[in-house]
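Need residues for this backbone.
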C-alpha cells in the first residue's frame, strides 16, 4: 500500500491507501483458530482476509513497545572491562619501567595471582 497525501494543502484529507498491484506478496502460516478469528474480524470490518491481516499487523505494530537495543554478550562485557582496566593500569605505571615488566605487572593485576586462576569464572578452565 502507498500513502498519498497533499503536503502543501491545508484542507487535505488524511493519507489514502491505494493498491498499486506492486505490493510484495507474503504468505503467513497460521493455526485454524487464528485464521477463523482473522476471518471473523475481516467480515466485521467488511475486508478481505489479506487486507484484514495488513490492518491487524499495522494495529499491532502501532501499539507494540519500542524494540530494545540488542544486548551485549557477557564475553564482550568482560573484554571491554579488561581493556579499560589495562588502559588505566598502563596509565598509572611508571613510564620508565621496561616493556616486559609493564606487561608482567598488567597481566598480574588483570588476571590475578596464578594460584587463584581456578576461581576466575571468565577464564577458561585448564584440564589437569
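Answer:
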Amino acid at each position: 500500500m502507498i500513502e498519498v497525501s497533499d503536503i502543501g494543502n491545508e484542507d487535505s484529507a488524511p493519507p489514502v491507501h491505494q493498491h498499486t498491484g506492486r505490493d510484495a506478496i507474503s504468505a503467513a502460516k497460521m493455526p485454524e483458530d487464528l485464521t477463523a478469528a482473522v476471518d471473523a474480524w475481516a467480515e466485521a470490518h467488511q475486508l478481505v482476509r489479506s487486507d484484514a491481516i495488513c490492518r491487524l499487523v499495522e494495529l499491532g505494530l502501532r501499539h507494540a513497545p519500542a524494540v530494545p537495543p540488542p544486548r551485549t554478550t557477557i564475553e564482550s562485557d568482560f573484554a571491554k572491562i579488561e581493556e579499560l582496566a589495562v588502559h588505566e593500569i598502563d596509565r598509572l605505571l611508571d613510564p620508565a619501567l621496561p616493556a616486559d615488566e609493564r606487561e608482567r605487572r598488567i597481566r598480574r593485576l588483570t588476571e590475578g595471582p596464578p594460584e587463584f586462576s581456578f576461581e576466575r569464572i571468565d577464564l577458561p578452565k585448564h584440564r589437569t
